[in-house]
Automatic annotation (TrEMBL):
The lineage of its organism: Bacteria, Pseudomonadati, Pseudomonadota, Alphaproteobacteria, Hyphomonadales. The active site is at C263 (nucleophile). NAD(+) binds at D30, K35, T86, T122, E155, K266, R331. NCBIfam families: NDP-sugDHase. This is UDP-glucose 6-dehydrogenase. Its EC number is 1.1.1.22. Residues 317-418 form the UDP-glucose/GDP-mannose dehydrogenase C-terminal domain. It holds the Pfam family UDPG_MGDP_dh. Keywords: NAD, Oxidoreductase. It comes from the Bacteria. The keyword Phosphoprotein does not apply. It catalyses: UDP-alpha-D-glucose + 2 NAD(+) + H2O = UDP-alpha-D-glucuronate + 2 NADH + 3 H(+). It comes from Hyphomonas jannaschiana VP2. Signal peptide: none annotated. GO terms for molecular function: NAD binding; UDP-glucose 6-dehydrogenase activity.
Length: 436
């Protein structure tokens, strides 16, 4: 089948490359000429493991194309995916749908023959109705169907999530559109992937409900971690103890500095706004949003406390800036709250991240960037682990200790064992576990 992907951000680029790898012919469209030229040259705008080789393979085999001109891509397409950004709107927290609506207007002018218009972007309930109205108004004679097909891609594992998903959700009651979507995802039928067909509004809500529930799990275990510190319990053992219950499950029960990234912050906020608009508030999610924001800010206090209550004039080495490992995404990363707060308390910051330092340099001021983890620790009065990159899990701790001015390590991801760190002579602080 022929697919047009409007938008070459995280979702559009990964989805387009994976559909091409399924055997479809995909043209990715973006208004940013510089980005398109770089993609044609094999330069990825984001860091995602395996994406560069996947794109290169499908470009070489002439299944994946990039352009700034939407005309031919949309006119020839069986399905046109809208995969543009839906950031939080300034002032009220609602999802900004201007890019989605702009794409709909463009599609209306260019589509030819029966076209399935698919919202891949994360959008509030009822957005599909608005997209359909926009296209119908512009093209009363148009032969099309608007479908919801939310993405469930984890940054850092997106290709696997697309090709071996837990499920595919498709919101449509149009039989022709249903058949097109089944053909697009036909390779997944071989793996018996559950493909859930629902009404469009139900599909739109599934996406928000899923992200909100995961955010609730993260925030719950973070609050349990705080309680563990007060009562002398171990949050990792609590997490394992409850996670072994099949009704709960072990995923998203790792205590840390709070969630961030491109999805959870904006999607939880958008869900609460939509719920309030419909007079059906989701009070649990409201609280999660508030608690998570407060938690990220509180982490700086945890570091300051571990350093004796005063960081003025001291240097703090920081490992990890991205909101999670295997990505360069800095959107709502905990580091954006933690590091400025430490600077405001008088500390100097020397940081290292394997992929996110370029993006971080635009968002964080007066930060010294190190070449590696050991350089970040060299001459620092404490070392703080903010992001759980694999390369931080097996550091040469003797070398780290020799480089530090003190023996203080604050591990906000619980990468190391408190007993092991104590045995090596570190004053070690972690999340939800007894300090040593």
């Amino acid at each position: 089948m022929r697919v047009a992907m409007i938008g070459t951000g995280y979702v559009g680029l990964v989805s387009g490359a994976c559909f091409a790898d399924f055997g479809h012919v995909v043209t990715c469209v973006d208004k940013d000429a510089s980005k398109i030229e770089k993609l044609k040259a094999g330069v990825m705008p984001i860091y995602e493991p395996g994406l560069d080789s996947l794109v290169a393979k499908n470009v070489e085999e002439e299944r994946l194309f990039f352009t700034t001109d939407p005309a031919e891509a949309i006119r020839d397409a069986d399905a046109v995916f809208i995969a543009v950004g839906t950031p939080s709107r300034r002032g009220d927290g609602h999802a900004d749908l201007s890019y989605v609506y702009g794409a709909a207007e463009e599609i209306a002018q260019l589509m030819d023959g029966f076209t399935v218009v698919v919202t891949k972007s994360t959008v509030p309930v009822g957005t599909g109705d608005e997209v359909e109205e926009i296209i119908r108004k512009a093209r009363p004679d148009g032969d099309f169907a608007v479908v919801s097909n939310p993405e469930f891609l984890r940054e850092g594992a997106a290709i696997k999530d697309f090709k071996i998903p837990d499920r595919v959700v498709v919101g449509t009651e149009d039989e022709r559109a249903r058949q097109v979507m089944k053909e697009l995802y036909r390779p997944l039928f071989l793996n018996e992937t559950p493909i859930l067909f629902t009404a469009r509004r139900t599909s739109e809500l599934i996406k928000y409900a899923a992200n909100a529930f995961l955010a609730v799990k993260i925030t719950f275990i973070n609050e349990m971690a705080d309680l563990c510190e007060k009562v002398g319990a171990n949050v990792q053992e609590v997490s394992r103890g409850i996670g072994l219950d099949g009704r709960i499950g072990s995923k998203f029960l790792n205590a840390g500095p709070g969630y961030g990234g491109s999805c959870f912050p904006k999607d939880t906020l958008a869900l609460t706004k939509t719920a309030n608009d419909y007079g059906s508030p989701v009070r649990i999610v409201d609280t999660v949003v508030e608690v998570n924001a407060a938690r990220k800010k509180a982490m700086a206090g945890k570091v300051i406390e571990a350093m004796g209550g005063d960081v003025s004039g001291k240097t703090i080495g920081v490992l990890g800036l991205a909101f999670k490992q295997n990505t360069d995404d800095m959107r709502d990363a905990p580091s954006l709250d933690i590091l400025p707060a430490l600077q405001a308390a008088g500390a100097k910051i020397k940081a290292f991240d394997p992929e996110a330092m370029t993006e971080a340099s635009h968002l964080l001021k007066d930060i010294e960037f190190a070449k590696n983890a050991y350089e970040a620790a060299e001459g620092a009065d404490a070392l703080v682990i903010v992001t759980e990159w694999d390369q931080f899990r097996a550091l040469d701790l003797e070398r780290i200790k020799a480089g530090l001015n003190s023996n203080i390590v604050v591990d906000l991801r619980n990468i190391y064992s408190p007993d092991d760190m104590a045995a090596k002579g570190f004053a070690y602080t972690s999340i939800g576990r007894p300090a040593v």
